[in-house]
Amino acid sequence: MYNIFEAPFVKEMCEITAQMYRMGWDERNGGNISCRLDPQLVSQYLDLNDVKRVLPIGFDASEAKGQIFIVTGTGRYFRNVEKAPQDNMGIFRVAPCGNEIEVLWGFEGGGRPTSELPTHLLNHIERQKVDPENRVILHCHPANTLAMTFVHELDDKAFTKTLWRMITECIVVFPEGIGVLPWMVCGTLEIGIATAKKIHDYRAVIWGQHGIFGAGRDLDEAFGLVETIEKAAEIYIKIMNTPIKQSITDKELMAVCESFHLTPHEGWLDLE
Ligand SMILES: [Zn+2]
Questions:
Q1: In the sheet that 204-207 helps form, which strands lie side by side, from edge to edge?
Q2: pLDDT digits (tens, 9 = 90+) for 53-66
Q3: In CATH, which superfamily holds the domain spanning 1-115?
Q4: Which end of the chain is least crowded, N or C, by CB within 10 Å?
Q5: How far, in Å, is the centroid of ligand 1 from the Cα of 202?
Q6: Where are the domains of the chain?
Q7: How far is the CA of 140 from the centre of ligand 1 (A)?
Protein backbone atom coordinates (compact mmCIF):
# COMPACT_ATOMS: atom_id res chain seq x y z
CA MET A 1 0.00 0.00 0.00
CA TYR A 2 1.37 3.40 -1.03
CA ASN A 3 1.28 6.52 1.17
CA ILE A 4 -2.05 8.31 0.66
CA PHE A 5 -0.36 11.71 1.10
CA GLU A 6 1.64 10.92 -2.05
CA ALA A 7 -1.46 9.98 -4.07
CA PRO A 8 -1.86 12.14 -7.20
CA PHE A 9 -5.51 12.89 -6.38
CA VAL A 10 -4.63 14.15 -2.87
CA LYS A 11 -1.76 16.27 -4.21
CA GLU A 12 -3.92 17.71 -6.99
CA MET A 13 -6.65 18.67 -4.54
CA CYS A 14 -4.05 20.38 -2.32
CA GLU A 15 -2.68 22.31 -5.29
CA ILE A 16 -6.03 23.39 -6.72
CA THR A 17 -7.51 24.53 -3.38
CA ALA A 18 -4.37 26.62 -2.69
CA GLN A 19 -4.53 28.06 -6.21
CA MET A 20 -8.23 28.91 -5.90
CA TYR A 21 -7.62 30.55 -2.53
CA ARG A 22 -4.89 32.68 -4.09
CA MET A 23 -7.26 33.64 -6.92
CA GLY A 24 -9.52 35.15 -4.24
CA TRP A 25 -12.35 32.81 -5.21
CA ASP A 26 -12.63 31.05 -1.83
CA GLU A 27 -12.70 33.39 1.11
CA ARG A 28 -12.93 31.86 4.60
CA ASN A 29 -14.70 28.49 4.18
CA GLY A 30 -16.17 29.44 0.80
CA GLY A 31 -16.04 26.96 -2.06
CA ASN A 32 -15.99 23.19 -2.35
CA ILE A 33 -14.68 20.58 -4.77
CA SER A 34 -15.52 16.97 -5.45
CA CYS A 35 -13.64 14.63 -7.72
CA ARG A 36 -14.73 11.10 -8.69
CA LEU A 37 -11.84 8.68 -8.32
CA ASP A 38 -10.91 5.46 -10.05
CA PRO A 39 -11.46 2.70 -7.40
CA GLN A 40 -8.57 0.74 -8.87
CA LEU A 41 -6.21 3.67 -8.27
CA VAL A 42 -7.59 4.39 -4.78
CA SER A 43 -7.08 0.73 -3.80
CA GLN A 44 -3.34 1.23 -4.23
CA TYR A 45 -3.46 3.74 -1.35
CA LEU A 46 -6.41 2.66 0.83
CA ASP A 47 -8.04 -0.59 1.92
CA LEU A 48 -11.49 -0.20 0.33
CA ASN A 49 -12.98 -2.58 2.93
CA ASP A 50 -11.83 -0.41 5.85
CA VAL A 51 -14.79 1.93 6.34
CA LYS A 52 -13.97 4.49 9.05
CA ARG A 53 -17.45 5.98 9.47
CA VAL A 54 -20.87 5.77 7.85
CA LEU A 55 -22.68 9.10 7.49
CA PRO A 56 -26.31 9.69 6.48
CA ILE A 57 -26.65 12.27 3.69
CA GLY A 58 -30.41 12.83 3.79
CA PHE A 59 -31.10 12.33 0.10
CA ASP A 60 -31.04 9.58 -2.49
CA ALA A 61 -27.76 9.31 -4.38
CA SER A 62 -28.26 5.66 -5.31
CA GLU A 63 -27.47 6.39 -8.97
CA ALA A 64 -23.90 7.01 -7.73
CA LYS A 65 -23.73 3.97 -5.42
CA GLY A 66 -20.28 2.45 -5.22
CA GLN A 67 -18.64 5.54 -6.69
CA ILE A 68 -15.70 6.98 -4.75
CA PHE A 69 -15.13 10.71 -4.34
CA ILE A 70 -12.57 13.00 -2.75
CA VAL A 71 -14.40 16.03 -1.37
CA THR A 72 -13.51 19.14 0.65
CA GLY A 73 -14.94 19.34 4.19
CA THR A 74 -17.75 21.50 5.53
CA GLY A 75 -16.61 24.63 7.36
CA ARG A 76 -13.03 24.06 6.19
CA TYR A 77 -10.83 26.71 4.63
CA PHE A 78 -9.24 26.14 1.20
CA ARG A 79 -6.26 28.05 2.59
CA ASN A 80 -5.58 25.16 5.01
CA VAL A 81 -6.09 22.08 2.82
CA GLU A 82 -2.44 21.88 1.77
CA LYS A 83 -1.24 22.06 5.42
CA ALA A 84 -3.56 19.32 6.73
CA PRO A 85 -5.32 17.43 3.91
CA GLN A 86 -6.62 14.72 6.26
CA ASP A 87 -8.58 17.29 8.32
CA ASN A 88 -9.88 19.48 5.51
CA MET A 89 -11.04 16.90 2.99
CA GLY A 90 -11.88 13.24 2.80
CA ILE A 91 -12.58 10.25 0.57
CA PHE A 92 -15.88 8.41 0.67
CA ARG A 93 -17.88 5.83 -1.26
CA VAL A 94 -21.61 6.17 -1.80
CA ALA A 95 -23.18 3.26 0.13
CA PRO A 96 -25.35 0.66 -1.68
CA CYS A 97 -28.54 2.13 -0.10
CA GLY A 98 -27.73 5.51 -1.72
CA ASN A 99 -28.53 7.70 1.30
CA GLU A 100 -25.36 7.05 3.27
CA ILE A 101 -21.68 7.51 2.53
CA GLU A 102 -18.81 5.36 3.75
CA VAL A 103 -15.80 7.41 4.79
CA LEU A 104 -12.56 5.71 3.71
CA TRP A 105 -10.10 8.45 4.65
CA GLY A 106 -9.93 12.01 6.00
CA PHE A 107 -12.55 14.31 7.60
CA GLU A 108 -10.50 13.85 10.77
CA GLY A 109 -11.48 15.51 14.05
CA GLY A 110 -15.19 14.84 13.40
CA GLY A 111 -15.27 16.53 10.01
CA ARG A 112 -17.89 15.98 7.35
CA PRO A 113 -18.13 16.60 3.61
CA THR A 114 -19.17 20.00 2.26
CA SER A 115 -22.68 21.25 3.06
CA GLU A 116 -23.19 21.45 -0.71
CA LEU A 117 -22.95 17.65 -0.99
CA PRO A 118 -26.49 17.35 -2.47
CA THR A 119 -25.53 19.67 -5.33
CA HIS A 120 -22.20 17.89 -5.85
CA LEU A 121 -23.55 14.34 -5.96
CA LEU A 122 -26.66 15.22 -7.98
CA ASN A 123 -24.44 17.15 -10.42
CA HIS A 124 -22.07 14.18 -10.75
CA ILE A 125 -25.03 11.89 -11.46
CA GLU A 126 -26.46 14.28 -14.07
CA ARG A 127 -23.16 15.08 -15.81
CA GLN A 128 -22.26 11.40 -16.12
CA LYS A 129 -25.48 10.86 -18.08
CA VAL A 130 -24.18 13.32 -20.68
CA ASP A 131 -20.45 12.58 -20.34
CA PRO A 132 -19.43 9.33 -18.59
CA GLU A 133 -15.90 10.76 -18.33
CA ASN A 134 -16.95 13.71 -16.15
CA ARG A 135 -15.11 13.53 -12.82
CA VAL A 136 -15.02 16.98 -11.25
CA ILE A 137 -17.55 19.41 -9.78
CA LEU A 138 -16.06 22.61 -8.44
CA HIS A 139 -17.77 25.50 -6.65
CA CYS A 140 -16.40 28.94 -5.73
CA HIS A 141 -17.24 32.64 -5.33
CA PRO A 142 -15.33 34.60 -8.00
CA ALA A 143 -16.02 38.32 -7.50
CA ASN A 144 -16.72 39.52 -11.05
CA THR A 145 -19.07 36.66 -11.86
CA LEU A 146 -20.97 37.46 -8.65
CA ALA A 147 -20.97 41.18 -9.41
CA MET A 148 -22.45 40.45 -12.83
CA THR A 149 -25.41 38.62 -11.25
CA PHE A 150 -26.45 41.92 -9.60
CA VAL A 151 -26.58 43.95 -12.79
CA HIS A 152 -27.33 41.49 -15.58
CA GLU A 153 -30.54 39.71 -16.49
CA LEU A 154 -30.41 36.15 -15.03
CA ASP A 155 -31.35 34.31 -18.19
CA ASP A 156 -29.21 31.48 -19.61
CA LYS A 157 -29.17 32.81 -23.18
CA ALA A 158 -28.78 36.52 -22.37
CA PHE A 159 -26.07 35.90 -19.74
CA THR A 160 -24.15 33.52 -22.00
CA LYS A 161 -24.30 35.79 -25.03
CA THR A 162 -22.91 38.70 -23.01
CA LEU A 163 -20.00 36.50 -21.87
CA TRP A 164 -19.40 35.12 -25.37
CA ARG A 165 -18.90 38.69 -26.59
CA MET A 166 -16.34 39.60 -23.89
CA ILE A 167 -13.53 37.26 -25.01
CA THR A 168 -13.38 35.68 -28.48
CA GLU A 169 -12.48 32.28 -27.04
CA CYS A 170 -15.44 32.09 -24.63
CA ILE A 171 -17.62 30.46 -27.28
CA VAL A 172 -14.85 27.94 -27.88
CA VAL A 173 -14.61 27.10 -24.16
CA PHE A 174 -18.37 26.90 -23.52
CA PRO A 175 -20.22 26.65 -26.87
CA GLU A 176 -23.21 25.04 -25.13
CA GLY A 177 -23.58 28.15 -22.94
CA ILE A 178 -23.96 28.43 -19.19
CA GLY A 179 -26.92 28.03 -16.88
CA VAL A 180 -28.01 30.72 -14.43
CA LEU A 181 -30.17 30.29 -11.34
CA PRO A 182 -31.77 33.07 -9.28
CA TRP A 183 -30.76 33.45 -5.63
CA MET A 184 -31.79 30.45 -3.53
CA VAL A 185 -30.90 29.19 -0.03
CA CYS A 186 -27.62 27.30 -0.39
CA GLY A 187 -26.79 23.89 1.10
CA THR A 188 -30.28 22.53 0.41
CA LEU A 189 -31.58 19.65 -1.65
CA GLU A 190 -33.76 22.13 -3.60
CA ILE A 191 -30.78 24.09 -4.92
CA GLY A 192 -29.05 20.79 -5.65
CA ILE A 193 -31.96 19.57 -7.77
CA ALA A 194 -32.27 22.93 -9.58
CA THR A 195 -28.53 22.98 -10.33
CA ALA A 196 -28.47 19.37 -11.51
CA LYS A 197 -31.30 20.15 -13.97
CA LYS A 198 -29.19 22.92 -15.49
CA ILE A 199 -25.87 21.06 -15.39
CA HIS A 200 -27.36 18.40 -17.64
CA ASP A 201 -27.22 20.95 -20.47
CA TYR A 202 -24.32 23.17 -19.37
CA ARG A 203 -20.98 22.43 -17.70
CA ALA A 204 -21.22 25.65 -15.72
CA VAL A 205 -24.08 26.93 -13.58
CA ILE A 206 -24.08 30.32 -11.86
CA TRP A 207 -25.98 30.90 -8.63
CA GLY A 208 -27.24 34.50 -8.46
CA GLN A 209 -25.50 36.57 -5.75
CA HIS A 210 -23.56 33.49 -4.64
CA GLY A 211 -21.10 31.82 -7.01
CA ILE A 212 -20.49 29.29 -9.72
CA PHE A 213 -20.38 25.54 -10.27
CA GLY A 214 -18.11 24.14 -12.98
CA ALA A 215 -17.88 20.55 -14.22
CA GLY A 216 -15.10 18.82 -16.09
CA ARG A 217 -13.28 15.61 -16.88
CA ASP A 218 -10.42 16.73 -14.65
CA LEU A 219 -9.54 19.58 -12.31
CA ASP A 220 -7.80 21.54 -15.08
CA GLU A 221 -10.89 21.50 -17.26
CA ALA A 222 -13.32 22.55 -14.50
CA PHE A 223 -10.89 25.21 -13.20
CA GLY A 224 -10.22 26.53 -16.73
CA LEU A 225 -13.94 26.82 -17.41
CA VAL A 226 -14.54 28.89 -14.27
CA GLU A 227 -11.40 30.94 -14.96
CA THR A 228 -12.66 31.83 -18.46
CA ILE A 229 -16.14 32.79 -17.24
CA GLU A 230 -14.67 34.91 -14.44
CA LYS A 231 -12.29 36.70 -16.86
CA ALA A 232 -15.17 37.46 -19.26
CA ALA A 233 -17.29 38.72 -16.34
CA GLU A 234 -14.40 40.95 -15.26
CA ILE A 235 -14.29 42.55 -18.71
CA TYR A 236 -18.06 43.04 -18.63
CA ILE A 237 -17.87 44.77 -15.25
CA LYS A 238 -15.04 47.01 -16.52
CA ILE A 239 -16.92 48.15 -19.66
CA MET A 240 -20.60 47.97 -18.67
CA ASN A 241 -20.85 51.71 -17.99
CA THR A 242 -18.66 52.80 -20.90
CA PRO A 243 -20.00 53.68 -24.38
CA ILE A 244 -19.23 50.66 -26.60
CA LYS A 245 -17.64 51.52 -29.97
CA GLN A 246 -17.43 47.92 -31.29
CA SER A 247 -18.17 44.39 -30.16
CA ILE A 248 -18.30 40.84 -31.57
CA THR A 249 -21.36 40.16 -33.69
CA ASP A 250 -23.34 36.91 -33.77
CA LYS A 251 -22.06 36.28 -37.31
CA GLU A 252 -18.49 36.66 -36.05
CA LEU A 253 -19.20 34.27 -33.15
CA MET A 254 -20.49 31.76 -35.70
CA ALA A 255 -17.34 32.22 -37.77
CA VAL A 256 -15.27 31.32 -34.68
CA CYS A 257 -17.36 28.16 -34.18
CA GLU A 258 -16.93 27.19 -37.84
CA SER A 259 -13.20 27.72 -37.60
CA PHE A 260 -12.99 25.54 -34.46
CA HIS A 261 -15.56 22.99 -35.73
CA LEU A 262 -17.91 23.64 -32.80
CA THR A 263 -21.67 23.82 -32.59
CA PRO A 264 -22.94 26.71 -30.47
CA HIS A 265 -26.15 26.34 -28.44
CA GLU A 266 -28.84 25.84 -31.06
CA GLY A 267 -30.90 28.92 -31.90
CA TRP A 268 -28.94 31.37 -29.74
CA LEU A 269 -27.00 33.12 -32.50
CA ASP A 270 -29.03 35.51 -34.61
CA LEU A 271 -27.64 34.96 -38.11
CA GLU A 272 -30.38 36.62 -40.20
ZN1 LIG B 1 -20.77 28.88 -1.99
A1: 53-56, 100-106, 89-94, 68-72, 32-37, 136-140, 211-216, 204-207, 179-181
A2: 999 999 999 999 99
A3: Class II aldolase/adducin N-terminal domain (3.40.225.10)
A4: C
A5: 19
A6: 1-115, 118-272
A7: 6
